[in-house]
Fold this protein.
Amino acid sequence: MGCILLASKVEEETRSIHSIILTFAHIYRRRRLRVGDDISKYHYGAADAEADNCAVLNDQEKENVVRSVKPMSMLGPVYAEWKEALFNIENVILQTLGFTLYWIPDSHPHKFILYFVRVLEIDDNEVAQKAWDYCNDSCRIDLCVRCEPEIMACAAILMACSSNEIELPLVPCPWWEVFIGGNRDGDLSAVCNAILSVGDEENMEIRRAKYAFVPSLLDKTSFNDPESYLWSKAD
């Protein structure tokens, strides 16, 4: 939540504290019920939350349970605790970054997709759409703070062209060197592998992050997992 709040300020796409808290409370309820996941097949230890209690429910019944819960009141003590936790973790993030955000890329890979596709003279709109989808997948992991957006855009186009069996020039030099320079093959490969891992449904860490809970790295200061101090009050 802290990252969402801070990112909305940096990108000047402001979201209210109220909407952020209610959205994440809704997400936590869905994950508590493991909506969309196969409870009988996958187990995540402590992150299973209430899997045993909801194993008899199908996904539609779980959705009905989630929708039946009334949003928490802005005047209640639970909302006040969530709000305080949100502000605290935002401060932790800012302190960790040294209160400087200038080094984080101010451009998204999506910005370069259409331009690169046009330069490469790729007429297939499906390639551009698939590359755009890969860029969307990259937003689910930390690539945006580890790699330049141009490299992510090239990786997305490379995978999209590979999927559509479109060959791009490799001589006199690989096409991506025009956009990101030479000696970046390793970075490009690392980005491709990272984005592809997001869609790996058999990767337990990916499934845990998608359907259950990632155990908190901050002792007694976060509530990303069922053992946290606010979890029993989330309803």
